[in-house]
Amino acid sequence: MQQQHTEADEQTGPTFTAPTHREIVTILGGLMIGMFLAALDQTIVATSMRTIGDDLNGLSLQAWVTTAYLLTATISTPLYGKLSDIYGRKPFYLLAISLFVVGSLLSGTADSMYQLAVYRGIQGLGAGGLMSLAITILGDLVPPRERARYQAYFLAVFGTSSVLGPVIGGFFSGADQIAGIAGWRWVFLVNVPLGLIGLVVITRVLHLPPLRRIEHWIDWPGALALVVGLVPLLVVAEQGRLWGWTSPRALTCYAIGLVGLVAFGLLERRAGADAILPLRMFANRTFSVGAAANTVIGLAMFGGLAVLPLYLQIVRGQTPTEAGLTLIPFTLGIMSGSVIAGQLTSRTGRYKVFPVVGTVLMVAGGLLFSTLGVTTPLGLLFAYSIVFGLGLGLTMQPLVLAVQNAVPVRDMGVATSSSLFFRQMGGTLGTAVFLSILFSTVGTTIGDAIERAARTPAFQAALADPKVAADPDNAPVLALVKGTGGGLSLDDSSFLSGMDPRLATPLLEGFAQSVDLVLLISGLMMLAGVVLTLLMPELPLRNVSGIEGRLADDAALDAAAAPAPAPGVGVTPVGAVQAATADLDATRRVSDAGTGTPPHQEMHRDDR
């Protein structure tokens, strides 16, 4: 392919001065704003969705609002990675923030749930690039060995948002009006000033050198096939519990998704180096093992943690705000783990031990969570949260670092976005599967708990109490015991707060047992994560940043393509090439380890 660069670059070559710690922290401030927007949005909207659905007269459509955001965010993530590798990071990061801000502004003005679903889709188009490009830009600026300690800031944003989301969402959704605007609309409108600040900061402080652009063919057929493959599968993951996993609609989604994924694989193989997700990258053992590990961790982590807020709100009777505050120790664990992993990686250059220890802690945390009951002391819950959060903090950052370090610098964008893509896909699947397990077993566990409680004197006394029989909040359980009801529904669990405690206890115990089952499966599933992290190779960390690596690549290619000097003038052609390619060999030696691709093949790939 023809390479485009400026005339000045041809004469002197672009230069790059590594940023100082202060400059990196300033740039991180802008990147973290974007990441905070994406991470906060997931929790703040979930907390407010019931209020939003009631106000827009479409509570039954709330799942589509969530699904629209999830679809566009998941599908756009690998696109941002690939396109930023070709055309540069900054323009696409600014585009991601802009789309998110526009989608937020539109969502705050929605008059129906259908409008809100469309606007949330626009938000998702921006969210797909906010997190992956932030991590990639950091990789451009900082060598892998130093990168780990800065990535701890990103995980701190993730943890903080998981706590602040329910608190802020509860505040906004609980207010009738703020500044003359319905309270729930501020759930979206609050993103606008934050996003504008992020745009200004990134525009002013992020200055990347002009790198040589390789004119690749954009893999639009592969992108379309990815959409056809993932959209039906994500839809059925979100809606399957309501539709039925073997319903005609679900089976149709499975079939369409399978056809799309097969077509995607064939098209990616044909596209070669131009593919959105180059299949050659799976020949890199670190990348392939990392993809599998991220999927398992997303499956177990997001799936298991999806039921904890339900436990806190239904079994412990907490409000969404209180539930968010109860999980603060979880956030402290994430932040502590990420700081420990980052600092020790920077000092020692070793990173494999952290995801291994982290996944072991996540197994332990999941098993400890599976012992939660109606009367479990909050102190124990805090301790379990710290264990699980510490494991998560030790795991997430080193896995991304390992993948970035193992691939050629020109592929760092697509490698980073692919890691997050697999984690998000695992999280989507895990949430669907584990919530399905929860609600498919809760009827049986509650029935068994009521049967056990029915033999106790306290329960018998409650059944015989006329005041209990007259209270409508007790009607669901009384009908279930007498066999006159159509079954117990937890779609609206508000009746539990007013129910006689003697009747409510077996319901809470049964729900807690189903939550424990989900968390037990989640913990056991993480055993696969332990095995995968043990299988991951540990390669020496590069001492050059992504930009420095790309500049070295360009210099070596120029030297290799330069005409030989006249006899007796200057150095010999062999000496010139060897001198110019020395840095390239040094920076690539690690990249090509385990891939089976000699360095010269990578050079020819970029020339196509």
TrEMBL record:
Region called Disordered, residue ranges: 585-608
Family, per entry: Belongs to the major facilitator superfamily. TCR/Tet family.
Localisation: Cell membrane
Molecular function terms, GO-annotated: transmembrane transporter activity
GO CC terms: plasma membrane
Gene3D superfamilies in the record: MFS general substrate transporter like domains, Multidrug resistance protein D
Keywords annotated in UniProt: Cell membrane, Membrane, Transmembrane, Transmembrane helix, Transport
Annotated membrane topology: Multi-pass membrane protein
CDD domains found in the cross-reference section: MFS_Azr1_MDR_like
Keyword Iron: no
InterPro entries linked to this entry: EmrB-like, MFS, MFS_dom, MFS_trans_sf
Domain Major facilitator superfamily (MFS) profile residues, every copy: 27-540
UniProt-listed NCBIfam families: efflux_EmrB
Protein name in UniProt: Drug resistance transporter, EmrB/QacA subfamily
Main location: membrane
Transmembrane segments: 24-49, 61-80, 92-110, 122-141, 153-172, 184-206, 218-237, 249-267, 287-311, 323-341, 353-375, 381-403, 424-446, 517-535
